[in-house]
Design goal:
Blueprint: E1 2-6, E2 9-11, E3 17-24, E4 32-38, E5 45-51, E6 56-58, E7 66-71, E8 76-81, E9 90-97, E10 104-105, E11 109-113
Parallel strand pairs: 2-11
Antiparallel strand pairs: 1-3, 3-8, 4-5, 4-9, 5-6, 7-8, 9-10, 9-11
């Protein structure tokens, strides 16, 4: 499974970005997709995930602002980020799993929120 993330960039506080993660390869056994982020000097944290039945979960820090979604026809997972804050600045990674831990990772995409 290969994951290609895109959509990062620089935005002012209050702005929006949409990240995309296109998957290829043997994705038939993938049962969950997630977006992680890692800020400078920080640990990688799970921001949002979506499982096979479409259920979603979010970190408390992004609830109500971020939305994860999936387009099965395009093999793509999205992260819509609204009302961005400076503390959302990080490298964002998409991930996928076919078991109980995320074992496939895309390259990171930088999101910078600054005035």
């Amino acid at each position: 499974v290969q994951l290609q993330a895109s959509g990062g960039g620089s935005v002012q506080p209050g702005g929006s970005l949409r990240l995309s993660c296109e998957a290829s390869g043997n994705i038939f056994r993938i049962n969950a997709w997630g977006w992680y982020r890692q800020a400078p000097g920080g640990q990688r944290e799970l921001v949002a995930d979506i499982i096979g039945d479409g259920s979603t979960d979010y970190a408390d820090s992004v609830k109500g602002r971020f939305t994860i979604s999936r387009d099965n026809a395009k093999n793509t997972v999205y992260l819509q980020m609204n009302s961005l804050k400076p503390e959302d600045t990080a490298v964002y990674y998409c991930a996928a799993q076919n078991g109980t831990v995320y074992n496939y990772w895309g390259q990171g995409t930088q999101v910078t929120v600054s005035s």
